[in-house]
Structure formats: C-alpha cells, structure tokens
Amino acid sequence: MQDVVIVTGSGHGLPEEIINEYGIKIFHYGIHIGDEAFSDGVDIKLESMLKLMYEKGIAPKTSAPSIGELVNIIESIKKEGKSPVFVVMSSLLTAATYEALENAKRKTGADIEVVDTKQVASAKELIVIEAARAARAGKDMKEVANHARKIAARTNSVFGVPDLKYLYLSGRIGKAVVLMGSMMKVVPVAAIRDMEGEVAPVGRVRNVIQVNQKIVEVIKEDLKKFNADRVKTIIIGHSDNREAASSLRKAIDKNISYEEILEMEFGCVATAQAGPKTWGAGYYIE
Amino acid sequence: MEHLDSQELKNLISAGYIWLKNNSRIVDDMNVFPVPDGDTGTNMCFTLKSVVDELSKIEDIKEVTMEEISKIIASSSLMGARGNSGVILSQFFYGLSNGINSAEKISVSELAEALHQGNIYAYRSVSKPVEGTILTVMREMAQTALENKDTTTDITSLFEKILIKGKDVLNKTPEMLPVLKEAGVVDAGGCGFIFIIEGMLKYLRGESLEKKEINERNIPALINIWERILNLSGKEDSTDADLALRKKVLTKGLRRRTKSMIGEISLNSIDIPLRSVYKTLRKFSFGKRRALSNPGKKMVEAWSQKSKERYCLEFFLKGENISKDILSHNLKDSGSSTIIVGTDDLFKVHIHTNRPEEILKVVSDLGEVSEVKIDDMHEQQSKFLSDIKDDDKYDNKFGVIAVASGRGWKEIFKSSGASYIINGRKTMNPSVREILRAIERVDFFNIILLPNDANVLLSAQQAIKLTDKNVEIVATKTLPEGISSLLSLNPEYNIEENKKQMEAVLDSIDTIMVAKATRPIENGSYMVKKGDFIALKRKEIIASGSDCHKVALDAVKKVVKDESSLITIYWGKDSNIIGAKGLYQNLKNKFPDIEIQMYYGGQYYYYYIISVE
After folding, report:
1. Of B412, B489, B492, the CB nearest to A184
2. A23-43: b or e for each residue (b if 16 or more CB lie within 10 Å)?
3. SS (HEC) of chain A
4. pTM attached to this predicted model
C-alpha cells in the first residue's frame, strides 16, 4: 500500500505517462508574457509560448505557484490518508516556491516533506521519478524524502545554452554570466553540479557536436569523481531542439555506459528560464 | 630550537614569504584602509620576495656571517618595498636586521630584541601612525616577545606566544579603526603580517605551507557580517514583499555559506561572503533605491569611499647627505600616508597625493630620483569594487594575453575574453620587451599567455622569466588554436587547471594557412612558381597551385577527418568577403555535412586561415 504522494512543479518536462503511472501531483508555476499571466500547462502550452518567443522575441517570466493551489494539493492528499513529499527545483533558482510551500504548510498545519533537489529540468525530473519509485515501493514519507535527497546528492546536469539571454533575463544565470559575449558564434556550456544548485560555467564551444562532446566529457569527469564506471540513469532533455538531443543521445550511446536512459522535452518553465533550443542531460551516478 | 643560525634565519623568512603568498588574495580582499584598492597582500609579497630572492643568491649561507646576512636583509627589503604596508614591513625587517648583533647564532632573547627594533623602525617610518593597523599588530607582538624573552628558551614557543597575541590584536583592529568595523574586516596589513609570522611558526613546527587551512582570524570578520545581515533582515519594514523575500533568500544563502566554510575548511571560499554581501547590499541600497538599516549602508560606504588623494606615488631618492628632515618638510603638505625610509644616501618614499609630478620636481632638487611608480588609486579602487560587485568576474582572477595580427583577429580575441592583445604586426613577431610590457600592464597577477605562433613562443618564454607575475604559456601555434583554447577557458578553475584544459583542445584542431609564394619553392613533392598559392599546415606545404580557392579546397580535403564537424574560414587583408563567400560555397558543396563559419581575420600575407575541427 503506497501512502506517499510525490508532488512536483510543472514545466520541466515530466512526461504525462510517468505522471499517470506513479500518480504524481503537479503544482503549476505562473508564466507571464508581457502583462498577461497564465498558469503553466493550464491555460498556456509550450507551443503557443514558443511561438510568441520566436515571433515576437518575448522572454516570458515565471512565478511561484499560488499558496492556495499548494494548500489544496496538501489537503486532497491528506484526505486520502496519505502524505505528500514535494520534490522541487533548486532553491537557489526559485526561493519563492519554498516560501509558498512554507506558507501552505503553516496554513494547513500538515506534516509535509520538501526536498530541495538543487537541480532543474530533466535532472529534477530524474529525482522526482526516483522518489516516485521509492513511494511505490512502500517507503514512508521520511524515507522517500531522504531517498530523494540521497539521489539529488549524486545527480548533476550539464547543458548547451544557445542563447544566454533567457537565463540572464530570468535572473538564473548564476556564475555562468562569464560565458557571455563573443563575436564568434559560440555555444556556452553550463552545468549544475556538486549540489551547488546554481548554474556554473563549463566553457564555450563552437557548435552542437562540440557541445555534445563537452557534455560527454563532463559526465566522464563525474564518473571518475564518484569512482563509478557507469551512470545509473540519464535523462536527455531539450527545448524544441530534437536534433541536438538526438545527436547527444548518439554521443552518449557511443561513449558512456549507463543502466537506463530517458528522453523528454522541457515544458514552459524550463524553456522560459533557460531559453528555447537549450538541451542537455541530467544524470544520476549511484 | 634555542638558536637561529644564518641558514635557519633564511628558511624562516622564506617560510613567512611562502605562507603570505599563498594567502595574499585574502589580504588583498580585506584592504579597505587607507584606500580600498585591494593590493595590500600583493605589495607585502613583493616586498618580502626581494629579501627572499637576495638571500637565495648566497651560495653557501653557512659560510656567511650574521652581520652580512642582516645587511642583505636590510638593503633588499628597502629595495623591494611597495605600497603602504609593504614599506612599513620593509622597515620592520630593516630594524630587525639592525637588532641582530651576534656573529653566528641568535638567541631567543636577542630575537625578541630584534623584533622590538623592527617595531621601532616600522613606527618611526610613518609620519602619522594610525592605531588598528599593521603597526599596532607589530607593536603588541614585539611587546609580547620582550615580556617573554627571559622566561622562554625555545624559538618555537616564542613564536607561538607572539602569534597568539598578534591574532588577538588583529581581531580587535575593527574596534580601533572604525572604517574596518564598518567594512566588516580586520586590518589587511596586520593580517598579512600575521600570515608571515604564522608561516615562520609553521616552518619551525615542521608543518606544511600548502594553502588548505581555514583561517581563524577571518572568522570574526565573517561573524561581523553575519550580524549585520541579521540586522538588515530584521529591521527593515516588510511591506515590500519582494524586498523582504530577497532579503530572506540572502540571509539563507549566507548562513549556508558561512556554515559550509567553517565545516569544509576551505580558504578559497572565505572571501566570497564578503563580496556577496557587498554586492547584495549595493543592489538593495542603490538598485532598489531603498534606505538600508545603518550598518549595511555604512558598509557600502566604507568600501566605496573615494580617497582624497588620487595617486599612490613611490620613488627612490639617491644623493649625498640628503636630510630626512628637509625631505619630509618638503612633502609635509603634499599628501597623506607619507612614509620616508632609508639612510643618508638612499631614501624610499611612499605618499598618497594629487600632484605626483610636482613632488617629483621638488625632490629632484635634493637628489637623483629613480624607480618612480605612480598608481591611480581611484582606478584601482573601482576595479577592485567592480570585482566585488560581480562574483563572476571576481572568480576570474587571471587575465589572458593573446598575440594577434590583423584587426579582425584582434576583435575576435578581445570579444572572446582576452584582457590584452599584443600587436603581432605583419609577421607575428613581437619582441620580448613588448610581451613583457603587456604582462606588466595587465591588471592581473595570474596570466595565461597565448603566443598563437610558433615563432612567438621563444620570446614569450624569455619574457616570463623577467616578470614577477605568475604567467602560464599555453603553446598555441596558430590563431585558430588560440581562439579554441580561449573559448575553452573556465573562470571557475584555477590557472593550472585551465592551462591543462586549454592545451587539451589543441589536439582537436588543424589550421591551414593559404598564402602567395613570394619566390619559387622546390621541395620533394611540390614545385611552386613565384606567385602561385600554397597551403601550409604546420609550416609544411600540403597543397599548391595557381587558383587560390582550389588550393584551399585541396588542403581542406587533406585535413578533414571523419569526426570533423566545423570548418572556419578567416579571410585576410589581401582577400575579401566576396572571395570568402565563394570559398564558403565551394567547401559547402564538397562537405555538406560539416558546419562552415566565416569571419574577417584581417591578417597579413595569408589570404585565408582555415581551421578544421
């Protein structure tokens, strides 16, 4: 009997079938385009947002979920006699979500667990999936949360970010700001590693293939660091850049040994924050 | 150990220097008084380095008398003195060496006397001594040495005692000098002096001088900041939800950092909070145009206050029987932080002033002026503060110098992050002197140098022998190699790690240079007429003929490998964009699966430089 429900934020790419399979609950971030506010996945979808980004050059902003929605989620889970474990993107990139969760917790007086994954996008979803598996295995709230934290400590991610403008405008550029600018066409490569929870520079390269080589290099470096010879799980993620993602898949298949690999497309939130065409991999080394 | 012989004295000073050098960045970053220009640690290092260098020139030190050693210490510290604390430090060593009278070995009690002499000389050198600075730290330590000289017989335990005292006094400096307290730091010069003594003690105890440990003396400075932040987040009205939230985040972030610092014992992370605090405070006070609670506002002010005098002037004055009184009288109204040291025939002067030229004119009547150094402190300060404002730039504590020829190339290097471009002119052959000048001119102590030509490598190697700065050469042999390695730089890494990473990319790039033959060439495989085009790879001809584009295409065909994914064309001064576009099309037709980019290089001689990677 499963008595823990995993809750996570929208817009990072968790596929519908996984959400349904594990009964994961989703809270929704706000997406702001100009003066208009939308609720991610409810009244705005990736396609229409991308259209606005490409055609009008708009950089959407994101905002924290409403306390009301979080309260509702907590209460509905409690009603079923279950306990919620919130698995959330890095607190350094969304302090407001943690604020809202704290408020919701206070309002409901419920016992909840909040896991700071220190990650985003597909790496965050990787941790969500692992938490959902632990919940499925019948672990209790504390155990699931601790399991998720343990995974988070060994999960890193690395991305090619074709246009740093979006990270910059969304205030999520972290230390990667130094990668900006060159009159050459360059693709910055950035990573979130070592539980730092913020975007740090890896270097700049000249095209997609070189980005993918760099990503492979970084994964190999981490394998060495963790003293492992293969990756447990890799999730390749991309924002409207299937081509780069499949070329990354090839590079990984050729150079990295792994147990499990998944691919997903980022949702509105990750796309708004990192910009369209961003792609990369989140990976967990056991 | 009961006595110091000449060998031990030398080792002791070297150890002090090494430990100071390993920690000089921390000292630099604490530098708020008298002017926040962030060079205290570096200056003290240079001062001590000249002593260490002179001492290491002695071949068999055991054969040299203590008297000679102390003479060397006295003169070399004076000659190497730089900056406010540096000059004071040099006087300390000057006094110390004067206090050494023994022929062979120094006892504990004599060492204590010598430390005392050092302190007296240091004090005397400053026209208006200020408490809460390196002077206070020196004085209290020397006093402790004197108090213990009769009861202590072991050199190590004497150092232990004075170090405890010194740290204690250092931690009190913010109470003595208000600007330190406001800025949230202890005194930088005092801290540098503690590092020297601590290095010496480490040597005596046989401990490692590698930089790894946490520094207790920095923690009070941090706790100070921590209290300030708590103040900030507590007192501010919370009507502006956004502001309140950001503050909370800041508080959380800092708490985490402080903890991890003390837990992980990592020196490098120590100075980050100071900078983050400054940065965030500035954002709050200026960006948001919100009043801050007082400690925060004062902290920003303490760091951003512009000094009344703009220039830091230093020079030597040489002559017969120069009167120190007349000299100091002449300088009395010309500036502040005035330090005059030296003997009758050689003086070193340090002064903060707005009129450096005028001073130099006046003193040149008294004697021969040499080794003039004028630093613009306002510029240094804004540089220092802009480093603080931006964590990321701050991490990038090294600069890249690239040799380039052609306007396009210079712009490419500049826009990709090079701090300085040496003009390679037509032949890519700058002199040792030009390279050296670039090294000295760049505002970084740590420098990566990209020669970008095999010919430049030799001069570059010569140049780095002539500088005190830490310069690493990444042996790039062509301009495209230079670009690739510059792009691969990661400011999060240190200079050695970067050198490795930057060199690693060189294997994955090939460069082809297409030029017109200026004379007939005949080698085993190629017969080239004058006026024909040749394509070179690593100085070897790999294609030739009368059609420039065909030669380029042939060469690329020879170089392309299965895994090649990018060809870049840089067209030169003798070529043009239409020609480059034609070549682009030719290459595109031949290699449809490879990405091709083109840029203006503007290089001489070479119609095209083409890289394949």
Report:
1. B412
2. ebbbbbbbbebeeeebbbbee
3. CCCEEEEEECCCCCCHHHHHHHCCEEECCEEEECCEEEEECCCECHHHHHHHHHHHCCCCEEECCCHHHHHHHHHHHHHCCCEEEEEECCCCCCHHHHHHHHHHHHHHCCCCEEEECCCCHHHHHHHHHHHHHHHHCCCCHHHHHHHHHHHHHCEEEEEECCCCHHHHHCCCCHHHHHHCCCCCCCEEEEEECCCCCCCEEEEEECCHHHHHHHHHHHHHHHHHHCCCCCEEEEEEEECCCHHHHHHHHHHHHHHCCEEEEEEEECCHHHHHHHCCCCEEEEEECC
4. 0.58
Distance of CA B206 to the CA centre of its chain: 29
Quick one: pLDDT at residue B283?
A: 46
Tens digits of residue pLDDT in B305-336: 777 888 889 998 888 888 888 888 888 888 88
Q: Are residues A147 and A159 in the same domain?
A: no
Same domain, A147 and A171: no
B392/A177 CB distance under 8 A: yes
Q: Kindly report, residue by residue over B287-299, the tens digit of the pLDDT.
A: 333 333 444 556 6
The CATH code for residues B311-381 is 3.30.70.1150
Please list, in sequence order, all residues whose beta carbon lies within 8 angstroms of the beta carbon of residue B49, skipping any fewer than 6 positions away: B17, B21, B80, B468
CA angle A118/A120/A123 to nearest 5° reads 90
Q: What is the ipTM for the molecules in this complex?
A: 0.86
Q: Which fold has domain B510-612?
A: Hypothetical Protein Tm841; Chain: A;domain 3 (3.30.1180)
Quick one: B3-211 is in which CATH superfamily?
Answer: DhaL domain (1.25.40.340)
* pLDDT confidence of residue A263: 95
Question: Quick one: fold of B396-507?
Answer: Rossmann fold (3.40.50)
Dmax of chain B from CA atoms? Answer: 91
Distance CA A41, CA A269 (A): 10
Indicate the residue of A186, A201, A207 with minimum beta-carbon distance to B491.
Answer: A201
The per-residue pLDDT for B384 is 67
- Please give the residue of chain B at the shortest CA–CA distance from A91: B249
Cβ pair A159, A191 in contact under 8 A: yes
Q: Which of A96, A175, A185 sits opposite B492 (nearest CB)?
A: A175
Q: Are residues A66 and A93 in the same domain?
A: yes
Q: Do the chains contact at A184 and B487, CB–CB below 8 Å?
A: yes
CB of B544 closer than 8 Å to CB of B530 = no
Using alpha carbons, select from B573, B536, B569, B531 the residue that is nearest to residue B554: B536
Range of the domain at A65: 4-153
> How far B487 CA sits from the closest chain A CA (Å)?
5
